[in-house]
Structure formats: C-alpha cells, structure tokens
C-alpha cells in the first residue's frame, strides 16, 4: 500500500486556470443583465403583463449567470504525476470494476463485451482486478457474450500487453487500419486477433438472432422461464483468475450477476444494481477501491489505473461512469471518522462496528457483515475461491435483502432519484469529502452518446428530472447550511443543476417576441437603452464562440450547440418539470428510460469531450424527429415565430413606419423572432424533410393547433 510520507512530492498538483479577463467579461455581462432588469423595473408602471413576463424571464437568466460566474470564478485542474507513484507504492491495491447493463436490445451484448474486454486488459496486475457485470435484463445472451468474451480475453489481454496497445476495446482498436510490414510478427498477430474478434462478434450476433439452442445448454438453465422483472438471483463466475501460468493468469476475475426481481418490489434501477455489485464484490474480493463504468463506455487508455486513478480516487462530481471511489466512502465513512493514518477514530469505531447496528444497517447476511468490518478496517481479504461464496452472494441479491437497512439511504448508491450519480455525489460531498477531476490526454474513458433526436432529449429529460429530485430529497446539497461539511461554492455548483427549471422562462422568452409582434407591443427597451440588449446578445455570442474556438471546435459546432441547448431546454427539460409535478401529485412514478446505444463504426473525432459530443458527429446538426410529445414545443415555437414574422412583413407593406418610436413593436422584435428561428432551425428544416428527419404529421398538427390558438389569442387583444 501507499505510505503517506509527506517528504515525497505530491502525486497530484492543482493547477489554477483563473483569468482576470474572463472574470471581467463575466462581470460585464452580469452588469448588463442587471441594468436590463433595472430598466424594466423603472418602466414597469406604464407597461403591462408582457414586461412582467419579460422581467421574470430575464431575472431567471440573470440568476443563472450569477451562479455560473460564482462557479467559474477560479477554475482549476488536477495534474497527476503517475511516475511519482513508483517511489511510494510498494504494493498496488485491489480494484473492483463494476459494469451495469440492463437491456440486451437497447444495449447490444457485443458492446458490453467490449467494455468488459477494455477493462480486463488495463495495465494493472490481473490478480489485483475483478470485473463484475450486473445484468438487470437477466439476459442469457449477455451472459453468453461474456463467456465468449472471456475466452477471447485470453488472447486479447496478452496481445495488448505485448504490443502496448493503447485503446483496448477491440471494436475501437480495429477501426484503425494496420500500419506495419506485411510479414512482421505484429501484423500476423494483428490479423489473427482481428479474425478472432470478428468470430466473437459473429457468434454473439448469431446467438441474438436465434437463442433457442441456449436452452439446451445446462449452464443457461437458470435463465429458463425468467422475465427481466421476475426471476431469482443468478450468479455466475465466468472466469476466475487462479494464478496459474501463462495466459491463464493474465485475465482478471469476471463475474456475471443478475439480482432477484419480483413484480411488487422496487428495484431502484441502476442504483439498486450498483448496491448489489457493492455487496457481491464485498463478499468476493472486497477491494478497497472501485471503478464504475457504464456498459456503453470503454477504457480508452490502458494506463488509466496507475497514478491517475489512485490520485483521483475520491472521484470528481460523480457522474455515474468513469469514476473511482473508495469502498469506505461508499459505506458511508466521512473524513471526520478517520485518524491521520486512515484508521477509524474511536467514535467512528463505535458507530460503524457496533455488532447490533451492523446488521440493521448492512442487512442480515453474516458474511456481508464480516466483509464490511474488514473493509472498514482496511483489512480486506479476498476469498481464496470465488465459487465458495456463491450462496452468500445470492442471499444479498434477494429483493427483500435491503428491507429496513441503510442501503440506498446512507449506504452505497443513493435512491430516490433517477440521477443516482448526482444524488450519490451530493451525499459524498455533504460529508465533506473532496474530489478531483482528472482529464488526461488521451481521455481515460470514452463512451457513446445517443444520436441527435428523441434519444438525446429523453436522456436530458431523465437527467433534468433526476436533478430536481436530488434537490428536494434528504441528500439535497441545499439543506443543512450550517450542519453540513459541503463548501458554499460546491453547493452553488449543485444549484446549477436546477437549471432544468429554466425551461419555463426559456419557453416564454422564445414566444415573447412573436407575441409582441402579433400584438403590436414593445418587448425590448426603446432608444439608446436598446443598446443594452444588443450588447448583451453580441457579447454572449462572441464570448461563447471564443470559448468553442479555443477548445478546438468549429464555428458550426458552436452554432449547433447553441441551438441544441435551446431545444433541450424547451423540449426535454420542460417535460422534467412535468414529471416532477405528476410525481408530487402522485399521478405517475418516474422511471429510468435506458438510452439506446449503437456501436460506433467511425473513429471518435477530436475534441471528444463534454457536451459537444453530439454536435461533433458527422451528422452535425442533423436532427431526427418522431411523433412523441417531445417535439411539440419546438415545432410550436417555430410556427409561432414564422407566423409573427409573416404578420410583421404584411404590416410593413401597409405602413412604411415600421420602427416607430411609439408604443408598438418593430424591427427589434422582428430580429428577436429571427434569432429564435435561427436557434430552432432544425425544426424549420424538419417542416420540409421526409422520413426520420421530417416532423411527423401528428406532431405538426398538434403544434399547428396550438399556434392557431396562440395567434387568435394575440390578435383578439
Ligand atoms: O435499471 C437500470 C437502468 C440502467 N442501468 C445501467 O445504467 C447505465 C446508464 O444508463 P444509460 O441508459 O446509458 O444512461 P445515460 O444517460 O447514458 O447515463 C448517465 O446518466 C445516468 C443517470 O441518469 C448515470 O447512471 C450514468 O452513469 C450516466 O452515464 C447503463 O450501463 C445501464 O445499463 C441499470 O443497470 N439498470
Ligand atoms: Mn450511457
């Protein structure tokens, strides 16, 4: 283990990126926003509801900008020094790796196999690793593909290590052509590996077309007569690393688990799966560190474990995937519970290791309690043989196992939010833990994002809903201002997730210019004060554009992303608000809608991080529609603005005095409408396109009906 000698240079250094220029720009925009608000308030008395609504929207935007300015005030980055690890680490710790999957159709088993293969092959001693796959889909096909993948791993892992392969997900690796002389040893091995990988993919594909023959195999008996929502726990040790020689010892443990599900039991979606993973791994290997990776991601960099992982072990704002945690943090330990040397304080020992409390907190399994005590005391002894512990592991997978325990409340991944990652993260930060964000080059993990269209919007809707749930449950970063250990600006950072509530002001703000044009009302300040609005828009555009360009993105991807965020706010987050209202009224429950994944056939383009992923694809700006409710608001906004512009141009022909100094609307409002049309441009294209890129007739007619109501209502006044 690492010794904590303070004379050694640090493993990780914080590099500050603060810039006075950027601070000044942020403050200037804030100042402009405040002066706009002031102008509105000063001129309010003579005006009407339109100005009140505009004041509301602009106050929301100002609040958002204020929070963002606070959060961005002193940006920093943690730079890891993996080489320094050699000086202090004499024995690398065990690491358990968790991969959850839930649906063999939406999450193709070959993709899960790739994720697992990339993890089995990381540069880390194989006997220190264990990979656990949780399958909420209870799919024999997923199990089959893991079995096949583990066979392939016996040649894949040695191949990767021999040639120091960088990207160890085979599907991704073989997207690059071979660059070596035809007769070299490497090219022969490469060809052989490629053939074997293709054979693996074919086998999995054949099995997904016809899985009847699986029924005849005794190993698949446990899957017969099961439904994903109704079956007992299935636990299979796919591969056990028993040391041995040669290839045998190169592949880490691989365990397949599918927890019990019964129709009347809540299973808590991914967080329930993560907690079962925690328990089973606790029983089997009990590693002090763990890595969470979604089934749609893969380890992109073989050295992800050394240094970077250890240095970032407390984890950044946990976003569900590509993140390291210590087991003790997941078991609810706070920094205050620890002495300087990392052992539990006497108070914490009484609190955590009290025999009576343990069973009520962690559940009735004796083996589980023993493993917990060992983990808390940092004395985890992995089982000599994984198969010895299967019965106990099955017990902790029962759906009533967590009944009246602390699982999901203060232990493990927290429940009561579909954004279990943010929820758990908030729980950890509230206890006072710090975390670090490490973004190495090349990125340690890469994953797939849904295509631009309903899948992306539904995902955003889930995140938005989950975020609001986090803010209003027991682990809310907003409660306990003086009691909790979380820092003030960290709280603000969580408050930022409230931003999905801005869907309402954004929707209103997209309709206001059109309403004013139709109504012949003024929306923006008149005379020189119009300068405030214009400067704001121009500055914001230039500022965000500069940010995009300096990160290496194109002007087009900047434009697409501006448009995308407006669409996400009005078409996705709007429904998050609806979800929450329906939940509060007890009308419907909130479920985890799994994103549909496709295995990429093209190499990721650079830069490939963060929110720009989607807009960076080759189909940049191509938007897919379907007849779900999600596209009604966007289509409605587009139609209303087009109608308003049409009315405006007719009015222009009637009177030459368009930008009248009087009370009416004019060029400024028309420009507002044009801006909205530009931001919702995919919808304009969707009006004329056919197939999946066209807006379906039912959506169009519903939106058109709303538009007629809106226009009639405006005209009447
Ligand atoms: O009942 C469930 C539902 C989902 N999953 C798994 O959860 C992961 C994430 O699901 P995905 O459909 O890919 O959602 P994303 O929106 O891409 O996931 C992001 O958002 C989630 C919270 O909404 C986090 O859990 C994820 O880690 C984070 O990457 C996948 O591996 C799923 O197999 C389960 O194991 N059980
Ligand atoms: Mn995902």
TrEMBL record:
The keyword Glycosyltransferase applies. It is found in: Endomembrane system. InterPro entries: Cellulose_synth, Nucleotide-diphossugar_trans. It is a multi-pass membrane protein. It comes from the Eukaryota. One of its GO terms (biological process) is cell wall organization. The keyword Membrane applies. Mn(2+) binds at residues 270, 294. Coiled coil: none annotated. Pfam families: Cellulose_synt. One of its GO terms (cellular component) is membrane. The chain crosses the membrane at residues 20-38, 50-68, 493-518, 530-549, 631-650, 662-681, 693-713. UDP-alpha-D-glucose binds at residues 107, 136. Keywords: Cell wall biogenesis/degradation, Glycosyltransferase, Membrane, Transferase, Transmembrane, Transmembrane helix. The active site is at residues 136, 421. GO terms for molecular function: cellulose synthase (UDP-forming) activity. PANTHER family: X-BOX TRANSCRIPTION FACTOR-RELATED. This is Glycosyltransferase 2-like domain-containing protein.
